[in-house]
Amino acid sequence: MPKKKLPPPQPARRPRADAKRNRERILEVAKEVFTRFGAAASLDDIARRSGIGSGTLYRHFPTRDALIEAVYRSEVEKLAAAGPRFAATLPPLEALRAWMLLFIDHVAGKMLIVPAMDTVAGGSSRLIMGSRGLIRAAFAALAQRAIASGDLRHDTDPNDLVRALVGIFHTAYEPGWEQTARRLVDILIAGSRPTN
Question: pTM of the predicted model, to two decimals?
């Protein structure tokens, strides 16, 4: 007896617009609540503040850890997505500078949610390590564009700029570190400009 042909697999369904909006709203509210109240914040409170039912929240994020991880991952994805957006709308050096300043804002926000991230299995270090590739790729693309345009010296190594920028963040617990970091972005860029 000949075998029956199976129908081709159906393509993955895209989430409905309202489901996507709900998810984004939950992440936005969860970031605020975890920042303010830490990991012990009530998930039911997050659902209420998001304007959705608890069942909807748990459908998207079945555990507290899943929600905390998703909040952090969402913030990293926004940072990475800003790279191509800046590249499409700004000259190369301005795009690089804008992204570096946004990175400072990202780190400032991360510092506020780290206590909640530390409660996740593997802690904040695991989440941060897992996002490095995405962040480095966004930065490297912008730096390479600035090098190719001649705005930065051709021997500029984007990895050196990243290391210097990450070094700035070791002062993140000192008062006024953000203003210092913003000044150092301009110093890094000026020091990487062609000399002629």
Answer: 0.81
